[in-house]
Amino acid sequence: MSHTPGEPIAPEPATAPCLIGQLHDDGHTVTADEHSATSGDHLAPHHVMVGDLGVFAGDWAAYDHHGRTRYPTGFVGRLDAQRGRDGQYAVFSCDRNIADAIVVEQGRLRDETRRRLAAEGLREPDLDAEVDLANAPLRFEGDEIVMDERRVHGEADGLSRICPDAAGRYTICAWQWEWRAVDPADCDRVVGTPPTAAEQPARIPLVHSPLHVPHNRLTVTNLAERLNYDRVPFNATLCLDGAPIGEIRNEGNGSGTWLTHHDPARFSSRHMHQFLLRCRYLRQPTNEMTVLDRLVTEYDLDRRITALPPNTILARSVDDNGDYCGNVVDLESLTGLDRFDQAEAWNDLARYLATFATSAFSTHWQVWHHGRWQRVPALSTTADVGPNRH
Fold first, then answer.
1. Residue 330: what are its φ and ψ, rounded to 5°?
2. What is the domain range of residue 343?
């Protein structure tokens, strides 16, 4: 099965939390065992995905405490988007009470900066200027937040206003400032009430792709692939609780992957839509084609791994996100494959895999070893690699 990494993802609106015992439109009830198995430290940054509530703090306020980064104050809000490399910075929104606290905290940081600079001998008017440059003044005027950056941008462009959206929520400089989702345990105090594990959406990570699904009742079976030049058309059966509910098809002509429902009365496009609303691909809302492709990949790689002969290892090509690019190699009886605790074995493997053609989206190889995918170290550009004859 092949798919195209990097395909456009149509964002879906954020949904309400998935509560334990709640019956959803797709017919699934989240159990306490299932939820506890997938939540864990549910407010850890890597668990907070777009649409979720989390705790956020600014990089500019961070300080070191015995080698660990801590933050004076964390603020409860909803993650609405991510930006920066690997989505490291958070675009989040909050209600008026949290916005008030952010304005107050900015004032506290300004006072702290003023005291520090004054202790270092800085005097007016330079002191005021340096404080404004370090921490822009924020204040409320009615329901709007006024940010004063005239020291940076001048009189004409230095004043800006942050207005609440239709729901009364504020996004405070999240597209400019370096906010992060943080662990509440790393904050001296948290403003707002963080959600409990039961109040956060329950999601299960797939083994073979960066997709999280709300439950594992939807699975793929009976994958059939048809070779067609450089493309691989396929069709597969989508099942709910093991019973077929539809056929997944891809003609290999660039038209994408789609689902044909067998019995809309049992599982319709509305049920699929509800399932999709709670899926996250690379922590972002996603679309039907992305989810269907990854469900097929999950089945495809599972069956390949299960069918591996003894002393054989499966390698696959992936992109920068660790998403499968469609190239697989069975590694059987290669010298050194039983010595992965030694660097030279990995070098031999990288040298061998470099002889295989890969997708244009592929950036590296992974091997299935000890029940998980492990990255194959990059091969030196000076290594002697000849064309593959296998």
1. -85, 120
2. 308-375
pLDDT (tens digit, 9 = 90+) per residue, 317-366?
999 999 999 899 988 755 545 566 677 788 888 888 999 989 899 999 99
H or E stretch at 141? strand 138-141
Q: Is 194 exposed, middle or buried (0-12, 13-18, 19+ CB in 10 A)?
A: middle
Q: How far apart are CA 85 and CA 284, in angstroms?
A: 14
The answer to whether residues 380 and 24 touch, using CB atoms and an 8 Å cutoff, is: no
**Worst-scoring range by mean pLDDT, 13-17, 118-122, 256-260?**
13-17
Domain boundary among 300, 328, 349: 300
Report whether 36 contacts 310 (CB < 8 A).
Answer: no
245 belongs to a structural domain: yes
The residue among 151, 175, 195 that closes a domain is 195
State whether 294 and 266 are in the same domain: yes
- pLDDT of res. 362: 93
pTM above 0.85, yes or no: no
> For the chain, how many helices (H) and strands (E)?
7, 20
DSSP structure class, residue 385: -
The total number of structural domains that make up the chain: 3
